[in-house]
Structures are given as C-alpha cells and as structure tokens.
Specification:
The complex is a heterodimer.
Chain A (H helix, E strand, L loop, with lengths): L2 H14 L1 H37 L5 E6 L21 H7 L8 E16 L2 E10 L3 H4 L4 E4 L4 H6 L3 E4 L1 H8 L8 E4 L2 E9 L13 E5 H9 L9 E6 L5 H15 L10 E5 H44 L1 H9 L4 H33 L12 H28 L2 H6 L2
Parallel strand pairs in A: 3-8, 5-7
Antiparallel strand pairs in A: 1-9, 1-10, 2-3, 2-9, 4-7, 5-8, 6-7
Chain B lengths: L23 E12 L2 E13 L4 E5 L6 H8 L7 E6 L2 E2 L5 H11 E4 L11 H11 L5 H14 L15 H13 L5 E5 L7 H16 L3 E6 L2 H4 L4 E6 L2 E2 L3
Parallel strand pairs in B: 3-8, 3-9, 6-7, 7-8
Antiparallel strand pairs in B: 1-2, 1-4, 4-5, 9-10
Helix pairs in contact in B: 3-4, 3-5, 4-5, 5-6
Classes of the chains: A alpha+beta, B alpha/beta.
Chain lengths: 411, 244
C-alpha cells in the first residue's frame, strides 16, 4: 500500500462520514481562522503605524531636545523651558563637509495657533521652518509654491497651509492669494500642500507653515528666538541612515560641548525606534489573541482525537478485515493517521478561507485593518495538519493494536 | 517491509508450494483462553493434516472450538501450545507482520458476514488484498479484480456497492476477493450461513470450481449437507477432534 492508496482511502473514509467529518473540521476551522485573523490584525496594525511613519518622510531622523538616558535632571534639559536645540545646530548639520550622509535638514518649531480669515477662525498647528522642510518631509504643493530661502531672509509674511486647513478656512474657493491673520500678523497664503491619503494621521493635512524667521521674530517671539522644537534630518538613502545618525550625534555633541555621549542633552530617534515603540502595544495584543487562538486549536485537536476514537470503534470490523487480508499494523496506523491529517488539512484550508472572508468583512465594522499574508496562511494550514497528526497518533495506534479476530468478531 | 521475512522473498525459494507434501500440519495444538483465574480450553491437543488440493470440511456445534481452529488455520490467532506448520513454516514463531504477510499471500478468507466495505464498489472490495500485497501496480490490481469478478460471474456488477446487491451476490464478491491473490488455501467460515438455498448452491459451486483449479479448500460449517460437498470431514466437539 503506497502513500497514494493511503491518502485515497483516508479521503474516502472522510467523505463517507460527511456530517461527522464536517463537525470535526469545525473545531479546527474556527481555531485556524482565529489564528489567521489574529495574525492579520497584528500585521494590519503594524502596517498602519508604518504608514503614518512613512508619511513623515523617508530616511528620517528626528532630533528632539532632552536626554534619553536621564529625564530627572534639569541641568541637561536646558534653561527653563527653552529647548537645547538651536537654529545654529540645524545649520551645522546641513553642512556637507561635516555630515556628508545628510541630504537635508529642517529645524522645526511648532505651536498651536488660530488663523483668522474674515469671520472664520480655525485652530491648527503652526510650524516655523525652512524651505528644506519640503524635501525632508517629502511633501508636494498642489497649488502655489512652498516657502523659499528668500522668504526666510526677508521675513516675508507668507504662509503655506494643508489641504484640510484650506477647506476649513476658505471652503471651495481658491486659497492662494488670500490673507489670514494670527497674533496680529497678516500673512498671504502662497501655497496649499497636496493631500496625503494617510488613513489615520489627519494632522498631515491640517497644518500651517511659515518661515522660521517670521515664526521666531513676529509670531511667537520671546526669549527662545534661536531655539527650535526639533530638527528633522533626511539621510541621503536608507543605507546611509546609520552613518547619518553617527554624524549628527558626533556633531551635536561637539557643538554642545559634551564629551560623554551618555550625558547628551538631545535624543535622536530613528523611524525604527519610533516604530518599535508603537508596535509594542499591538504586539502584546497580538500575543493575547494568539493565546486564545491556540487554545481554540487545542480544543479542535481534542475534537479530532475524540472523533477518531469513535471512528476506530465504529469501524472495528473494517480494521479487522483489513488486517485479515494482510494489512500490517503499521499500514493500519498510517491509514488512520493520514485520515486525521486529512481532517486537519481540510479544516485548515476552510479555516484560512473563513479568515480571508473575515478579513474582508471586518474592516466594514471597525476601523482596524486586517492584512493576511500567504506565508501565514500556509503556516496555519501546516499547523492544522500537525494538529491532525498529533491528536491522531493515539486513535491510530489503538486501531493498529486491535487483534484481527477480536475486530472481526465484533457484531 | 523490513521484517525478517520480507514479502519480496516470500515464499522463500526453498519452499515450493506445488511439491509441499502437506499444506497444513497441526501437531498437538491447544488454545487456552484466560479470563481472570478461569482457564477455558477452546482447543485441546488437536492434530491434523490437510494435503495440497484437499477439500476439507470442519464441522461441529457452536462453541465446539471450530471457530478457534479456523482462526489458527487462518493465522488470525496463534496456538497456546503445539506446532502449526503452514507450507513448512512454523507459524507460531511468526511476529504480527509476518502473520499479516502469510495471510495476504497464502490464505483467501470468506466470512459468514461477507465483511465487504459498504463504501467501496465491488471491484474495489475485491482489489483490497492486492492493495496490501507488495508491488502490484494499480492498473494490474484493477485488471485482476475484474478477472476475479468475472470468475464469480459478477463482471457486470463491478461498480455496484455491496448495498446494491443481494446476499448471494455479496458473498460471491467476497469469494472473488478471496481468490484475487491466487492463494494456496481458501478458508471459508460458514460461507452459506446467511444465504438462501439458491445462493448457497451458487457459492458451493464456486468453491468446487476453485477446488478443481488446484486450491486447498477448508470449509467450516455446522450444516451437514454443506459438509457433504467436501472430500473429508473433520468433526470438532468440546475442543477435540472426533474423527477424520
């Protein structure tokens, strides 16, 4: 009896007892679809985080003030509430000699501001930055232009706004050329940013950008004219991200006169580190859901064992006959083992199918996204077959151990 | 197939079934069942010889031990004591795998309950012993199964399932299954016990034909007129042989 015969015989036995086989498969089916959906939800959450990070711009490093190694001390935190990062830091980082792997640098200061146009008042995030922001953040303008270096040096009262901001302030009418006021300063809208289709981060489309000189000298002012909220650094490519990180770190330590990197008064975050922090939460959720899935698979497996034992008892005459006709115990064991595996396989395939269906339906009811990968699906089917094998061993060896006369005598 | 007795070399070249003086040789065979402290002697010191191409009937009332004798002859069970030689082999020393192979190669079974698998068509039932035989290709299996069905006159019923046939037809399918491997011995356990007189005649006629074609037939029955078909009758009573 070769494997083809064994698989055929097992499939026939499964098909002969349709209802019983279907009920057995149900346990595995539910477990496998739970596994597939769980993994899909985890992947979906990860992809969402990744996407919102990608929206920040690629190959990005974010330098923020304050120490990452010690948050308790006020010494390295800078004077008062002023940031330890300055416009000069940004200028130094932009230098090609000191940091050849850095393509562009944008110093950014942000605050919340109310923009007024006529009787309309809209509260948004006001960012003071330079022309390089557009490169660093990989954003385009849909109409008008972005702020320029000339705007920076001339302290031009110009403003670039996000697409949502434009809609809120001006409705459907053209935004470019109109003026808005904030803090008594009247600014001309020179450009509107192209809308980003990010599902989550709506803030990408609701923002206002002004030259940093305007931001520091006329809009915000105060004692911290030179300090910035953060510095965005764009590496020349994904491969040079590490080198860019090193260069930025060394340069800033030098500029701030710090010898030990452990006492740095700034933190450089990579997208990766942001990503891992963001996915930590969804990972622990995934682990919990996976635990539930594993338990349901275990229950499904016990169901397989139960049904296989019933099957062995019910087909005791068949086993006896097969042994009488020359079926060696090993072949009998193999037949029942393959039968359990076939049940597992069928349950697994149907389970993956249900998982795919769930992945299609679920997003219509919740905001979560489900991404189902082919390797995970194949893995789930293999897992279902393994469950069939593991829980089929005991019933199969019971069948193989039956004495042919006892089995044939059974009426 | 890594047992000491492999199917490829079975029967061993030294053993030629055609010139074997005695197909079956039982010397002082006993079978004792133990249930707790109680010992039941199902078979006591039975000795018998069955020659090549003999047609032997084993008769006796129920509970006489003839079923136990049939199980031992069919290598479905091993004796507690005594010697059982089948074509010169000491069967009692065989392990489970070797017994499976002996049953597959040497013996064709016909049971009272037919024991056909209801979910398989007739030819697949007939094919079954060949599935467990070594190295018979699927095409050859089907061919031989069809030929065996032809022999029992059911060539046109090959695709019918057992449930779609009469009792007599089912037993003829079972006979086809017994002869498909071309075994030396056909062991029929009450083959007519569940059949009407017409079907009984059919099945007995088939056994006669098989006997004429050179096979050894051992027929276990409690019906006197069925036993009369045999050349020789062995009577078993209370686990002992009465006459031969």
């Amino acid at each position: 009896m070769n494997w083809r015969d064994t698989v055929r015989t097992a499939s026939e036995a499964v098909r002969t007892h349709r209802l019983r086989s279907a009920l057995t498969m149900l346990g595995i089916l539910i477990g496998i679809s739970a596994v597939v959906l769980t993994v899909g939800l985890g992947e979906g959450a990860k992809a969402q985080v990744q996407e919102s990070l990608n929206a920040l711009g690629t190959n990005l490093l974010v330098v923020s003030p304050g120490s990452s190694t010690d948050t308790s001390t006020g010494v390295r935190g800078g004077f008062g509430s002023a940031s330890t990062l300055t416009v000069q830091d940004a200028a130094a980082l932009a230098s090609n000699d000191a940091a050849p792997d850095i393509q562009a640098v944008a110093a950014v200061s942000t605050t919340s501001a109310s923009l007024v146009y006529g009787t309309t008042n809209w509260r948004t995030t006001l960012t003071g930055t330079t022309a390089s922001w557009q490169t660093v953040r990989s954003r385009a303008v849909s109409s008008g232009r972005f702020i320029t270096d000339a705007d920076e040096t001339q302290v031009s009262p110009v403003i670039v706004i996000g697409s949502d901001t434009a809609t809120e302030l001006f409705g459907t009418s053209t935004a470019v050329g109109k003026t808005v006021t904030d803090n008594g300063v009247t600014m001309t809208v020179v450009g509107v940013l192209t809308e980003l289709s990010s599902s989550e981060s709506t803030s990408n489309n609701d923002l206002a950008i002004v030259p940093s000189s305007l931001y520091a000298q006329r809009l915000v002012g105060g004692t911290s004219r030179n300090s910035v909220s953060s510095i965005y650094i764009k590496a020349t490519s994904a491969n040079t991200l590490t080198a860019a990180y090193q260069e930025a770190n060394t340069l800033l330590l030098n500029l701030h006169g710090i010898t030990a990197s452990a006492s740095a008064d700034f933190t450089i975050a990579t997208q990766e580190s942001i990503l891992s922090a963001a996915t930590n939460v969804s990972d622990s959720l995934t682990v919990m859901l996976a635990g539930i899935a594993v338990i349901s698979l275990l229950v499904g497996g016990i169901g397989v064992m139960n049904i296989m034992l019933v099957s062995v008892t019910e087909r005791i005459r068949e086993i006896g006959l097969r042994k009488a006709l020359g079926g060696r115990p090993r072949l009998i064991r193999r037949q029942f083992l393959v039968e359990a595996t076939v049940l597992g396989f069928a349950g697994g395939v149907l389970g993956v199918g249900l998982g795919y269906a769930g992945a299609k339906i679920l997003p219509h009811f919740t905001s979560t996204r489900v991404i189902i990968s082919v390797p995970a699906s194949i893995g789930a089917i293999v897992m279902a077959m393994a469950i069939g094998v593991i829980f089929g061993v005991y019933p199969a060896s019971r069948a193989a151990r039956l004495a042919p006369i006892d089995a044939l005598r059974n009426e | 197939m890594t047992a000491t007795l492999s199917r490829a070399s079975y029967p061993p070249p030294a053993v030629d079934r055609a010139v074997e003086p005695s197909v079956i040789e039982l010397i002082d065979v006993s079978k004792i069942y133990r249930t707790g402290d109680v010992e039941v002697g199902a078979l006591r010191n039975v000795s018998l010889h069955i020659e090549e191409n003999e047609f032997v009937a084993i008769t006796g009332p129920s509970g006489s031990g003839k079923s136990t004798l049939m199980h031992i002859l069919g290598c479905l069970d091993v004796p507690t004591s005594g010697i059982f030689r089948l074509a010169g082999h000491d069967v009692q020393s065989f392990d489970e795998n070797q017994l499976s192979d002996v049953r597959n190669v040497f013996i064709g079974f016909v049971f009272q309950q037919f024991n056909l698998l209801s979910y398989l068509p007739a030819w697949r039932n007939v094919e079954l012993p060949l599935v467990y035989a070594n190295g018979v290709r699927p095409a050859e299996r089907r061919e031989r199964a069809m030929a065996a069905l032809e022999t029992v006159g059911l060539g046109n019923r090959a695709d019918h399932k057992p449930g779609e046939m009469s009792g007599g037809q089912q037993q003829r399918v079972a006979v086809a299954r017994a002869l498909v491997t071309e075994p030396g011995m056909i062991l029929a356990d009450e083959p007519t016990g569940n059949l009407d007189s017409t079907s009984t005649a059919d099945v007995l006629e088939l056994l006669d034909q098989l006997h004429d074609s050179g096979r050894t037939i051992v027929l276990i029955t409690h019906e006197h007129d069925v036993a009369l078909r045999a050349q020789r009758t062995i009577q078993i009573r209370d686990g002992r042989k009465v006459q031969s």
